[in-house]
Amino acid sequence: MTNRIFAVAVLILLATIATVTASGRGGWTSAQLDQLRSMSLAELESLPQDPTNRVADDPRAADLGRRLFFDTRLSSNGRVACSTCHQVDRGFQDGIALANGVGTTARRTMPIAGVARSPFLFWDGRKDSLWAQALGPLESAVEHGGTRAQYAHVIADSYAREYEQIFGALPDLSQVPLSAGPVTDREAASAWNALSSAQRHDVTRVFVNIGKAIAAYERRIEFAPSRFDKYVDAVTSRQPSPIILTDDEIAGLRLFIGRANCTQCHSGPLLTSNEFHNTGVPPRPQLAIDHGRLTGATAVLGDEFNCRSQWSDARARCSELDFIVTGEHTLDRAYKVPSLRNVAERPPYMDAGQFATLAEVLDHYNRAPAAATGHTELRPLRLTPVELRQIEAFLRTLSGSVVVGGPAAARSAQ
Amino acid sequence: MRDTQRIEKSMIRRTVLTLATLAFAISMTACSHAMMMIHGTGAKRPAASDFGLGPRSSAQGRYVATLEPAKALRPRQMQTVRVTVHDAEGRAIDDAQITIDGGMPQHGHGLPTRPRVTQNLGDGVYEIEGVRFNMGGWWEFKLAIAGSRGADTITFNLDL
């Protein structure tokens, strides 16, 4: 009996010694090191092709797209471009709660870096490609406020040569009014309805190609490595390095991959699963009821410009649409999980900028209040104020530059 | 002399026992902490031998299925998986209706897509498309099989 107890005791001692040894560098276990590596930008896979956009990787299209992105003539009042809300010097967002185009929207501007890797775009995922996404704001009454006929004329007047080199001959637009499109503006809508179906087709073709050129530019917008990535490089390569993260930041990282459950959604090199979740974020009282992914999933299936549409260049299966989840109560007020890269650089937070600071966001996740509509997936975390500050400190290590020119440029920017 | 040896032996034993008790206490504290960190819903991760692509028997033993992903399973990728279904005697089941479900038991969420069988390739082989696991970790991948041997379910445990 005593011998058996003795044997068990020796085994426990040996197991403890093994565990302590396995803790490895920086006090991380090998499983934790694997997890840290999976979050490093070095693990980012090369940009997937976009079969719906045959000019996605054509540098001439990216160049035209860049010029269109900054062109305020693509708006009803001549003052709004994509770059009005997606500001280059702010990491392609605007720093305000609700975006301002020609009017005020109901949503927070989303940053652009890395989103070419996301199967669905917008907070509710109502678009399934970068080019289809780019077309939405152009026809929104509160964003660019213009019409597809107006934009086709801008191309014919100012970009004809560049456009035709990429997409072939422009249609004859001489009989097309200066403003016409399937928009809420009555005059423009009735002008659109008065056009022949051939004219509508011609105009829409040019409009779609505007989106495809802008998408070719946006695809090249990427994150460069942050302090966190340098830390992961150092700690996983077992090379002696100067102190990259402070003790508080490391404690925050431990909570992030552990007790705070952050990696449940914020996983992978971009720290997002690209999925949709209801986290009980309170709606803004002045805005109309918004059901998030519940309506977004239905909208993308009916979208004029989706992967299955005549405007898509895809020849193969549209897997994202074929296997989409729709109509489930879990989608009610579920919103896109954003990348946490550069998160400290872009307050306010959430789909309508409901939280002004990271501390407010963390407080929300810690308390996990009930959702106003649908059901929150959060559970109270019961973290202490010190632990919340440590997570915030860690989140601040995820900042790096945003570079235009694809992954190669991102790597050389470190 | 004999007494001294006995005392020495018992002292060693006592030291080892004390050290082990201490180590056990410390590691239990650390473990329970780690388990709390991982086990959000309290679901217990199965033993390592319960993981894998099969062959795996159904709950009532009517079928045996094996998964064969077209590409190694990775998080956040849309994937195609072939499943081969036999009966307990190793005969191919050709006429099965298979529906797919799954999720992460420790996180309480299901699959982010609705995968389904898109082709019956014959010889008990079926192609499942639209499979995506949106994060790394323990996933359940469940097949409900209705075939010539009756209805049964198989749950695969996958480690992404």
Describe this structure in words.
The complex is a heterodimer of chains A (414) and B (160). Helix content of chain A is 40%, strand content 2%. Chain A has 16 helices and four strands. In chain B, the strands form two sheets. In chain B, strands 1-2-3-7-6 form a five-stranded antiparallel β-sheet, with no helix packed on it. In chain B, strands 5-4-8-9 form a four-stranded antiparallel β-sheet, with no helix packed on it. Chain B has one helix and nine strands. Chain B is an alpha+beta fold. Chain A binds chain B through residues 2, 5-6, 8-10, 12-13, 15-16, 19, 35, 38, 119, 258-259, 261, 263-265, 267-268, 273-275, 317, 319-320, 322-325, 330, 377, 379, and chain B through 13, 16-17, 19-21, 23-24, 26-27, 33-34, 36-38, 40, 75-76, 78, 107-110, 112-116, 129-130, 132, 134-136.
Low-confidence parts of chain B lasting 5 or more residues at pLDDT below 50?
A: 26-39
Radius of gyration of chain A from CA coordinates: 25 Å
Q: How large is the share of residues in beta strands of chain B?
A: 35-45%
Number of helices of chain A: 16
H-E order of chain A: HHHHHHHHHEHHEHHEHHEH
For the biggest sheet of chain B, the summary is:
5 strands, antiparallel
Q: What class do helices, strands and sheet pairing of chain A give? A: mainly alpha
**Neighbour order of strands in the largest sheet of chain B:** 1-2-3-7-6
